[in-house]
Amino acid sequence: MGERKKLGILGSGKGSNMTAIAEGCRTGRIPAEVAIVISDVAEAGILERAKEQGLRAKFIAPGSFRTKLDEVAERAYIAALREAGTDWIVLAGFMRILKGDFLRAFAHRVVNIHPALLPSFPGLEAWKQALDYGVKVTGCTVHLVDQGIDTGPIVAQQTVPVRDDDTPDALRERIQEAERALYPAAISELLRGEILAQGRRTVRRQAPSV
Fold first, then answer.
1. C-alpha to C-alpha distance for 21 and 15, rounded to whole angstroms
2. Active-site residue 114, yes or no?
3. What is the pTM of this model?
4. Residue 54: left (phi > 0), alpha (psi -120 to 50), or beta?
5. Within 10 Å of residue 209's Cβ, how many Cβ atoms?
6. N or C: which end of the chain has fewer CB within 10 A?
7. Which of the following is catalytic: 5, 114, 143, 174?
8. Are 154 and 143 in contact (CB under 8 A)?
């Protein structure tokens, strides 16, 4: 096995996906280590969870915009991730849109998970969108991040049935449970080179013939 990759995890919330990924790294399921966890929210649970696990945790103010990093903040994020030696950037509930210089700094190495089966229900509160629309099946999607909003190449998906008596919170909880299983597995496959991006699509690498 090659040298273990270093992950930089960005998040704004409680950090349940970060915890699942860190556990995957510790057990060797993911061939990587978590180099740094960064949040745009000073009191975010993800920072506390990271510290509890002995991981480097850092708050970096997002700047003046509500939905994205401003230029000063973007440079600070890039600098912190580079200083930590990160190879891949993992978004774990990070509520800021990443654009331009950030995606160029880590080209084709930023991965996200979305709580719906993309391309359906992009954007915020995707579980509520699915419930309001009346679909019978939703789920979660791991995808590479591009300049659009939830539009990058799809890496993996997991379905979650919608129950007749579902509330938004109940459906969201089951989607998050699926995320905690799917995300570490998909990251592992990406890092091992088992899934490759080819334009809009990703493909599974063919095993060499004997």
1. 10
2. yes
3. 0.94
4. left
5. 4
6. C
7. 114
8. yes
Distance, in Å, from the CA atom of 69 to the CA atom of 17, rounded to the nearest integer, reads 22
> By the 8 A CB rule, do 11 and 92 touch?
yes
Judge contact between 30 and 24, C-beta under 8 A.
yes
What is the distance between the alpha carbons of residues 144 and 203, in angstroms, rounded to a whole number? 13
Contact partners, residue 177, CB within 8 Å, separation at least 6: none
- Answer positive or negative: Cα dihedral of 47, 117, 81, 26: positive
pLDDT tens for the chain, residues 1 to 210: 457 999 999 999 999 999 999 999 999 999 999 999 999 999 999 999 999 999 999 999 999 999 999 999 999 999 999 999 999 999 999 999 998 999 999 999 999 999 999 999 999 999 999 999 999 999 999 999 999 999 999 999 999 999 999 999 999 999 999 999 999 999 999 999 999 998 889 999 876 555
Given a contact cutoff of 8 angstroms between Cβ atoms, the answer to whether 128 and 169 are in contact is: no
